[in-house]
Specification:
Blueprint: E1 3-8, H1 13-31, E2 39-44, E3 51-52, E4 55-56
Length: 60
């Protein structure tokens, strides 16, 4: 059973629904497995808890 973990900043629920469907479909197509076996975990990190290039995303 594939488990996909996506780490990102907060997104609208409709965008997440679309993403989860596309990721699931990609695994179904690539591995020829039932969609029910694919799990997608979305871990949302607030901008004040994520940094890039030495700066918090919230400060950009």
């Amino acid at each position: 059973m594939p488990i996909v973990t996506i780490q990102q900043g907060p997104r609208d629920v409709e965008l997440k629904r679309d993403l989860v469907k596309r990721v699931t479909d990609a695994f179904v197509d690539a591995y020829k497995i039932p969609a029910e076996t694919v799990q997608v975990w979305i871990h949302e990190v607030p901008a004040d808890s994520w940094a890039a290039a030495g700066r918090l995303i919230a400060d950009k």
